Amino acid sequence: MKNILITGFTGQVGSQLADYLLSETNYNVIGMMRWQEPMDNIYQLTERINAKDRVSIKYADLNDFSSMYEIIDSTRPCFIFHLAAQSFPRTSFDIPIETLQTNIIGTANLLECVRKLKVAGDYDPVVHVCSSSEVYGRAKVGEALNEDSQFHGASPYSISKIGTDYLGQFYGEAYGIKTFVTRMGTHTGPRRSDVFFESTVAKQIALIEAGYQEPKLKLGNLASVRTFQDARDAVRAYYLLALESEKGNVPCGEAFNIAGEEAFKLPEVIEVLLSFSTRDDIEVVTDTDRLRPIDADYQMFDNTKIRKFINWQPEIATSDMFKDLLQHWRDEISSGRIPLNR
User: Fold this and answer.
1) Which burial class, exposed, middle or buried, applies to 287 when counting CB atoms under 10 A from its CB (0-12, 13-18, 19+)?
2) Quick check: 2 and 27 in contact, CB under 8 A?
3) For position 323, what pLDDT does the model report?
4) Sign of the dihedral defined by the CA atoms of residues 171, 176, 178, 183, in that order
5) What is the dihedral of CA 109, 111, 112, 116, to 10 degrees?
6) Would the pTM of this model clear 0.90, i.e. be above it?
7) Which residue ranges does the chain devote to CATH 3.90.25.10?
8) CATH class of the structural domain 3-188+229-258
9) Which class is 197-225+261-297+317-334 in CATH?
């Protein structure tokens, strides 16, 4: 049975991808993680991991070339979904060097491992390089972003993803590695980290409902318009693109936008989430600590290109997605896992 490697296995998207692959395919799933990572998002898989039932964990670090080489060489995955990253734009202002190191050099380490193994013998995997819609940065209001839109770094994170993006394209074009690059718009749903806007709103509502926070939502910049999609829809697109790449139907190094088709101003997201709340006395206040020096204030996308390659569109309604996100935080809190108020 063939292997699939997921870097960033314990993250929201990595764990959702693992769930999807185990449910919808017959591949073995290998999850790469660092030994000290939290396992909250993969607890549903621990019984299968312990039983060695088509899913296993391998320890490695993007910044350690030898560990990356060993994991790829020993498992020879036919698909590599490279999702691991320092993925928090706000945090990247505090740790810019680590963000650049992990996201750019870490990606180069992975691709160099594949290149060396490809040259050395019969190994030619599909490599999905996960970039980000943040590469477009501060887009013009009213502009629908397509894959040819100009990059404009708006944070150390977005700059690191520009580097990641170019690496994926370069290794495909220069060395014939079957890479494809995805620039996913804002994606959320259950397991979304609480450092992201819609998840911190849902988390704070759940904390307020449970009596752990006063009825005030502490938020930063709300002057942003963006699409939202469920990560469970996005991982389907990842897999379908990988299949087409394996068949040779996707040019090496090709880049794709993957985005939701329902746009919201951020205050509208708050309204939707509050409509699901058991409380009617919650107010919104500005927390200056949550403001970024510069923001990507407008992000609307054109999904035309991806539909030329795969039969895909978002299926989960954003209202259901936000409801599931709020319920996720209610479940966490009711289980005694009280999150930090950050």
Assistant:
1) exposed
2) yes
3) 96
4) positive
5) 140
6) yes
7) 197-225+261-297+317-334
8) alpha beta
9) alpha beta
